[in-house]
Amino acid sequence: MTAEELGFQEFYAAQYERLRRLGYWLTGDWGQAEELAQEALVRTWWRWPIVRRLDRPGDYARKVLVNRHRSLRRRALVEARYAARVGVEVAAPFDGHEDAAVLAAALRRLSARQRAVIVLRYQEDLSQAEVARLLGMSVGAVKSATNRALAGLRSQLGASADVLARSAGREDHGEGEG
Fold first, then answer.
1. Does the pLDDT at position 96 exceed 60?
2. What is the mean pLDDT of residues 120-140?
3. Minimal CA–CA distance to 100: which of 168, 25, 32?
4. What single-letter DSSP state applies at residue 29?
5. Disulfide: which of 40, 57, 95, 168 matches 65 by Cβ 3.0-4.6 Å?
6. What DSSP string describes 44-105?
7. What pTM was computed for the model?
8. Which residue has the higher pLDDT, 110 or 104?
């Protein structure tokens, strides 16, 4: 095994669980989260000779995951529009902890941009500047999206919003480290 392959193995071991959790908070589904994490790491491997030289290669993998999620959401929207036109029902079951299920359902009712900002800020614990860089937004746009998303979550969840966010961020839901 080459040094490059060993370096990527270490990177993979360090990043997989974090990417999987990010995928979970974006989708509310562990299966989709695993697929997003795996695809992000495969795409990172393809560019590994360049990515490994970056100061923070984990940011690259995270951006790949977020971009892939956006792409899949756009595709799902097109499919849902088609299904609505032809009368096909689309179901999205949830398998998870009850509090996480409530929070994930509330997150899904936010716009994709607001959901990404909230997950990156509070689940991934990134600064506003890091979120802005990752999503290609200004810091002001991140602040605005955060405020709107938090207001939306509070209106949906009431007083339990902060408790749910804290507890769901610490739970491992039986799926690895949380």
1. no
2. 89
3. 168
4. -
5. 40
6. HHHTHHHHTTSS-HHHHHHHHHHHHHHHHHHHHHHHHHHHHHHT--------S-HHHHHHHH
7. 0.56
8. 110
How crowded is residue 4: how many other Cβ atoms within 10 Å of its Cβ? 12
Region 90-97: mean pLDDT is: 47
Question: What's the chain's Rg over C-alpha atoms?
Answer: 17
The residue from 93, 123, 155 where one domain ends is 93
- Looking at the 3D structure of the chain, how many domains does it have? 2
Mean pLDDT, the chain, integer: 81
Residue 88 shares a structural domain with residue 108: no
Output the 3-class SS for 125-172.
Answer: CCCHHHHHHHHCCCHHHHHHHHHHHHHHHHHHHCCHHHHHHHHHHHCC
Domain match, 30 and 73 both: yes
In the block, residue with structure tokens 């290609």? 136
Give the pLDDT of residue 92.
46
Domain boundary among 37, 70, 93: 93
| Pair 81, 101 in one domain | no
Q: Which of 117, 119, 107, 118 is nearest to 156 (CA)?
A: 107
For residue 114, the domain's CATH number is 1.10.10.10
Is 63 found in the same domain as 104? no
Q: Tell me what the mean pLDDT of segment 163-170 comes to.
A: 52
